[in-house]
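Module 6 notes. Inverse folding takes a fixed backbone as the condition and produces residue identities as the prediction. Think of it as a translation problem where the source language is geometry and the target language is the twenty amino acids. Below is one complete input and output pair. Work through it position by position during the lab.
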């Protein structure tokens, strides 16, 4: 049985991102990799997520899940030599299932999302 939370989230994703009705949305879908929500689109999507659902931002950090916009040639060239530079571009995956869990919790809590 599908929960009301899931139906509302799926509807919101389809509306905001333009996911066609024939494409299934799954809890394991990554916002960035599977739904192509990146950069400014990701920032706008997450802003609307927090407006639409009764969720407190808690410890949410945009940069933890999405890379910064723009291109920095120095950073790209330094990546093979600098663990710090590589780590800067490694991001945690944000999935639709995680968004559903956040709605159920009512607050963004990284520790509970990792459980």
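Target side of the pair, the amino acids:
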């Amino acid at each position: 049985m599908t929960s009301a939370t899931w139906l509302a989230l799926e509807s919101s994703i389809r509306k905001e991102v333009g996911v066609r009705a024939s494409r299934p949305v799954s809890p394991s879908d990554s916002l960035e990799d599977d739904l192509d929500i990146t950069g400014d689109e990701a920032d706008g999507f997450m802003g609307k997520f927090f407006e639409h659902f009764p969720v407190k931002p808690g410890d949410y950090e945009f940069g933890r899940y999405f890379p910064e916009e723009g291109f920095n040639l120095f950073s790209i060239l330094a990546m093979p030599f600098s663990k710090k530079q590589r780590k800067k571009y490694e991001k945690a995956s944000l999935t639709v299932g995680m968004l559903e869990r956040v709605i159920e919790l009512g607050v963004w809590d990284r520790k509970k999302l990792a459980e």
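Reference fact for the lab report: The chain has one domain: 4-114.
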